[in-house]
Specification:
The structure holds 2 protein chains of 2 kinds.
Chain A (H helix, E strand, L loop, with lengths): L1 H7 L3 H25 L15 H12 L14 H7 L34 H9 L1 H4 L10 H4 L7 H10 L6 H5 L1 H9 L6 H8 L17 H11 L6 H4 L9
Chain B lengths: L1 H5 L24 H24 L4 H22 L17 H27 L14 H33 L8 H21 L13 H23 L8 H20 L2 E3 L7 E3 L3 H36 L6 H14 L15 H13 L1 H14 L4 H6 L1 H23 L2 H7 L3 H30 L8 H34 L11 H47 L18
Antiparallel strand pairs in B: 1-2
Helix pairs in contact in B: 2-3, 3-6, 4-5, 4-6, 4-18, 5-6, 5-9, 5-16, 6-7, 7-8, 8-9, 8-10, 9-14, 9-16, 10-12, 12-14, 14-16, 14-17, 16-17, 16-18, 17-18
Classes of the chains: A mainly alpha, B mainly alpha.
C-alpha cells in the first residue's frame, strides 16, 4: 500500500484522479438512491402547491434568513411531537426549493405554526416581537408593513419553479400576479380565481388587515399560516408517539 | 481595490536589489500579460454593465454596478503603468510571492471585519434592539455576513496565500505564470464582496454556507478552476520528484470544494435579470445534498486546506520533520474517503430515510481515526521542540490549533451518535462545537502560519512585536474558551429543558422558559467573541507594523551610497 502511494504521490494527474474518485463515492451512494427509491417521499394525493402569495412570502422568509433561528423539521422524538405536533414527513417539503429544515432553534420550530395564531398576532409579532412576547430576542421586521409587495414578476417565479419540478399550470403562471393580489383582498374580483386554481380550502384574507395596499407582511403571514397545512397526511397517519432516545 | 492606493508592489523592493525599478505588480507583468489582463478587465466591465442593465429592477443591477466599478478601477490601476518597460527575466529565478502578500493582507482585513460583525450578531441575542430600524441590519441578514466573511474571506484568502507559498517551496518551482494568481485573488475577493453585499440586500439562497446566489456561484467556479490549473501547472514544473503532503491536502481542498460547490448550487434563476434562483433539488433530496455540502465544506475547506497549512508551517517553525509519513498517508485518505459519507448526521430523526442516517453516523465514528492520526502526527512532531512551544507564541498557536483539532473532531464524532444528537441538535451546543473548530483550530493555525510567513515574505527578521503575538495568543485562547464553555452550557441546558417532563407527563418548560435561561450565556458568549476580536485587531496591527516599520528605518539608508539594503521604499498607509 505504501509502495503504491510512493509512486502515486509522484504524479499530479494520478493523484488528482484518485482524490476525485475516492471522495465521490460517499455522496453518490447516499444521494443518488434518494431520487430513485420510491418510498423516500410518501405518496400523498392531497398535497397542494404554494399559491403565488405564499411563494412570495416564502421568498421573504428566505431573504430575511429566518432559517438561521427557526427549523421547519419536527423530529420523530416524543418531546418534539408533544411540543410542536406530528413529526414532519418528507412529502411536506416536496415542493420546497430549497428546503428550509434549518439546523438551529434560537426560536421555536415553525413546521406546524399555520393557523395556531391569528393574523393579527403575526402582524403585531413581526412588527415588534416584544409587543406580544416581552422576552423575545427576535428582530423587529417593521419594514414589512411599509413595503409594497412586488408581484409583477411572480409569473417568472412560477415558471422557474416549474422548471425545477413544481407542477404549476400555464393558467397559474399567467395569473400569478392577479392571484397574489386576490388572495390578500377577499372582496376583489381576483379573489375568485385563487380558489378556482388552488382549491376551495385556500385561505383568502386581509392578512395584514389593510385592503388599500398589498404589503410584504401580507405575503409572509400568508406563508406562515400555510406551514404544516399543505397536506393532511401527517395528522391522519397512525397516532404518532415519537421515540425516547 | 485597496492596492491601487497602497501600491503594494513597492512594499517588497527588498527582493529586487538589483532591479529597483521593477517593483510594482504591473511592472512585473510582461506586455503580453498586461494585454491579457486589460482584455479580461474589459470583459469583466461588460459583464458588470450587462448585469446592471438586465437587473435594473433587482439587486442584481446593484451587483452589476459594483462589478463595473471594480473593473474600471482596475483598468485605471493597470493603465497607470501599462506602458512601463518589460521586466527582465531575472524575476523568474525567484519565487513569486506578491499574491501571497496580498492574500495575507486581505485575510487580515476580512477577519477583523467578520469577527466584528460576528460579535455584533452575538450582542443582538443579548439585546435584539442593538440595531437600526433597517432591513440590512437585521439578524438574519448580517449573520451570513459574519459566516461568509470569516470562512470564505478570512479562511479562503489565507488558504490561497499560504497554498501559493507552500506550493512553490515544496516544489522548488516558481508559480506557472504571473497573471492567473492575480485573477484568482481578485476574482475570489470579488466573489466574497458580492456575497456579503448581497446578504445585506436580501440576496441569499438560505442554504447554510452556500448562501450566495447563482451569479456569485458562477464567478467562483471560474476562479476555482483557474486556481486548480495554477496548482497543476506549477506541480508540472516541480524539481522535487515527490509531491509533498501539504499539496495533497491543498489539492483535495480545491478539487472537492469544486465538486461540492457545483452540485449543491445547481439552480434555475427566475430570469437572467433576477438574482433570485430556485434550487434544482427540493425537500429531502435538497436536505441531503445541502448537508453533504455543508459537512464537507467543514471537511475540505476548513479541515483539509488548513491541514495543508499545518503540515508545512508547523514542522518548519518547530525545526522538526513530520513525525510519521505513513500516518499522514493514512489520515489523508481516511479524511478524503470517510468525510463525504458523514453529512447525514446533520439529519438524525428527520424525514431522511433511516438507512442514510445510520450510514452517516457510522462513518462519522470511523472519521475519528484519521482525524486523531493527523492531530497526533502534528503533536508528536513537536517532540524535541517543546521548549520552542513554551517560548514562541507563533508555534504555540499551531500547537493549540492541533489540540483543538483533536478535541473538536472528537466532539463532532460524539455529537454524530444518534442519541447524543437528539439532545445536541438544534441547540447552542452545535454553535459551540463549530466555534471550537473555527476559532480553536482554523483561526489558530492560520494566525500561527501568518505570523510565521509575514517576516519570511517581507524579508524581515521577525514580527514587529513578539509581545503582541503573545498578547494575541492569550486573548484568542481565553476568548475561545469563554465562548465554547458558554455555548456548551447553554446548549445542554436548552436540550435538557426541551425534553424534561413533569410527573404528570406534560412538558415541564415552555420554549420561552428555555430562552430566558440562555440570557447569561449569550452575554458570556459575546464577551468571549469580543476577546477574540481584540486579539485579531492586535494581530492586524502587528502585521501592518512589521510590513511598515523596518521600511521606515531603511528609508534612511536610501541616502547611503552603498546599496546594502533595498532602496526606494515608499509605504502609504491605506486609510
Amino acid at each position: 500500500m505504501f509502495g503504491f502511494h510512493y509512486r502515486l504521490e509522484r504524479k499530479a494527474i494520478g493523484l488528482m484522479l484518485v482524490i476525485i474518485v475516492v471522495s465521490s463515492i460517499g455522496g453518490f451512494v447516499e444521494i443518488a438512491p434518494l431520487f430513485t427509491i420510491h418510498q423516500t417521499v410518501e405518496d400523498v394525493p392531497d398535497m397542494r402547491l404554494y399559491t403565488p402569495l405564499e411563494l412570495a412570502g416564502r421568498n421573504i422568509y428566505v431573504r430575511e434568513g429566518c432559517y438561521a433561528c427557526h427549523s421547519q423539521m419536527i423530529r420523530t422524538l416524543r418531546d418534539e411531537v408533544d411540543r410542536y405536533g406530528p413529526y414532519s414527513l418528507a412529502v411536506e417539503s416536496k415542493y420546497d426549493h430549497p428546503m428550509l429544515w434549518g439546523s438551529k432553534r434560537t426560536g421555536p420550530d415553525l413546521a406546524r405554526i399555520g393557523e395556531k395564531y391569528s393574523d393579527e398576532w403575526h402582524v403585531a409579532h413581526l412588527d415588534n416581537p416584544r409587543d406580544v412576547v416581552p422576552v423575545s430576542v427576535m428582530p423587529a421586521y417593521r419594514w414589512l408593513l411599509r413595503t409594497e409587495l412586488r408581484i409583477d414578476d411572480l409569473g417568472l417565479h412560477l415558471k422557474a419553479q416549474r422548471a425545477v419540478g413544481v407542477p404549476y399550470t400555464d393558467d397559474m403562471i399567467a395569473n400569478a400576479a392577479a392571484d397574489a393580489y386576490g388572495q390578500a383582498v377577499p372582496d376583489s374580483r381576483q379573489a375568485e380565481g385563487v380558489a378556482k386554481r388552488y382549491g376551495k380550502a385556500t385561505t383568502i384574507r386581509l392578512f395584514d388587515g389593510r385592503a388599500d395596499q398589498l404589503t410584504e407582511m401580507d405575503a409572509l403571514v400568508a406563508y406562515l399560516q400555510i406551514l404544516g397545512r399543505l397536506t393532511e397526511a401527517p395528522y391522519k397517519a397512525k397516532a404518532q408517539i415519537g421515540e425516547t432516545p | 481595490m485597496f492596492w491601487t492606493r497602497l501600491n503594494f508592489g513597492k512594499l517588497q523592493v527588498g527582493e529586487h536589489v538589483a532591479l529597483p525599478l521593477e517593483d510594482s505588480v504591473i511592472r512585473q507583468l510582461t506586455k503580453k500579460e498586461r494585454r491579457l489582463a486589460l482584455l479580461m478587465l474589459i470583459f469583466l466591465g461588460f459583464i458588470g454593465a450587462a448585469m446592471g442593465i438586465l437587473g435594473r429592477d433587482d439587486p442584481l443591477g446593484i451587483h452589476g454596478v459594483l462589478v463595473f466599478v471594480a473593473a474600471i478601477l482596475m483598468v485605471f490601476f493597470l493603465g497607470s503603468e501599462y506602458y512601463a518597460p518589460e521586466p527582465s527575466n531575472d524575476r523568474l529565478a525567484r519565487y513569486y510571492d506578491d499574491p501571497s502578500k496580498v492574500g495575507i493582507v486581505m485575510s487580515m482585513i476580512w477577519v477583523v471585519f467578520g469577527l466584528a460583525v460576528g460579535d455584533w450578531v452575538a450582542w443582538l441575542l443579548v439585546d435584539p434592539d442593538l440595531t437600526f430600524d433597517a432591513a440590512w441590519s437585521s439578524f438574519g441578514r448580517i449573520r451570513p455576513v459574519h459566516t461568509t466573511s470569516v470562512i470564505f474571506g478570512f479562511g479562503g484568502n489565507a488558504l490561497i496565500a499560504t497554498s501559493f507559498y507552500v506550493l512553490q517551496r515544496t516544489s522548488r518551482a516558481r508559480l506557472a505564470d504571473q497573471l492567473s494568481p492575480w485573477f484568482v485573488l481578485v476574482g475570489y475577493n470579488l466573489f466574497c464582496l458580492i456575497a456579503v453585499t448581497g446578504y445585506l440586500m436580501g440576496v441569499t439562497q438560505s442554504k447554510e454556507y452556500a448562501e450566495p446566489e447563482w451569479h456569485a456561484d458562477a464567478l467562483l467556479v471560474v476562479v476555482w478552476v483557474t486556481y486548480f490549473l495554477i496548482y497543476l501547472r506549477t506541480l508540472a514544473r516541480r524539481k522535487e520528484p515527490h509531491i509533498y503532503v501539504s499539496n495533497w491536502y491543498y489539492m483535495a481542498f480545491i478539487l472537492v470544494v469544486a465538486i461540492l460547490h457545483i452540485v449543491n448550487n445547481l439552480a434555475v434563476p427566475v430570469s437572467i435579470g433576477h438574482a433570485k434562483s430556485y434550487s434544482l433539488f427540493s425537500g429531502v433530496q435538497d436536505a441531503m445534498t445541502q448537508w453533504w455540502y455543508g459537512h464537507n465544506a467543514v471537511a475540505f475547506f476548513l479541515t483539509s486546506g488548513f491541514l495543508g497549512m499545518m503540515y508545512y508551517y508547523l514542522p518548519v517553525r518547530a525545526g522538526r520533520p513530520i513525525f510519521s509519513y505513513r500516518l499522514s498517508i493514512i489520515s489523508f485518505w481516511g479524511i478524503t474517503f470517510f468525510y463525504m459519507w458523514a453529512g447525514s448526521h446533520h439529519l438524525h430523526y428527520t424525514a431522511l430515510p433511516q438507512w442514510v442516517q445510520t450510514l452517516g453516523m457510522t462513518f462519522s465514528l470511523m472519521l475519528l481515526v484519521p482525524s486523531w492520526a493527523s492531530a497526533s502526527n502534528a503533536l508528536l512532531t513537536l517532540n524535541g521542540a517543546w521548549h520552542k512551544v513554551r517560548d514562541d507564541a507563533t508555534l504555540r498557536f499551531m500547537m493549540v490549533a492541533a489540540v483543538f483539532y483533536g478535541l473538536s473532531t472528537f466532539e463532532g464524532t460524539f455529537m454524530a451518535i444518534r442519541p447524543v444528537n437528539s439532545l445536541s441538535h438544534y441547540t447552542d451546543w452545535t454553535i459551540g462545537h463549530v466555534h471550537a473548530g473555527a476559532l480553536g483550530w482554523v483561526a489558530m493555525i492560520t494566525f500561527g502560519s501568518i505570523y510565521a510567513s509575514v517576516p519570511w515574505l517581507w524579508k524581515r527578521e521577525r514580527m514587529y512585536s513578539a509581545k503582541l503575538v503573545e498578547a494575541h495568543f492569550w486573548l484568542a485562547l481565553s476568548g475561545t474558551a469563554v465562548y465554547v464553555f458558554a455555548m456548551w452550557n447553554s446548549g445542554i441546558i436548552q436540550g435538557l429543558m426541551w425534553r424534561t417532563y413533569t410527573e404528570s407527563g406534560t412538558l415541564a418548560y415552555s420554549f420561552i422558559d428555555s430562552l430566558i435561561a440562555m440570557h447569561p450565556y449569550y452575554i458570556a458568549r459575546a464577551i468571549g467573541g469580543l476577546l477574540f476580536l481584540v486579539g485579531a485587531c492586535i494581530g492586524a496591527y502587528n502585521v501592518w507594523m512589521t510590513v511598515k516599520v523596518p521600511a521606515a528605518a531603511m528609508e534612511k539608508a536610501e541616502d547611503t551610497p552603498l546599496p546594502m539594503f533595498p532602496t526606494g521604499i515608499n509605504v502609504q498607509p491605506a486609510e
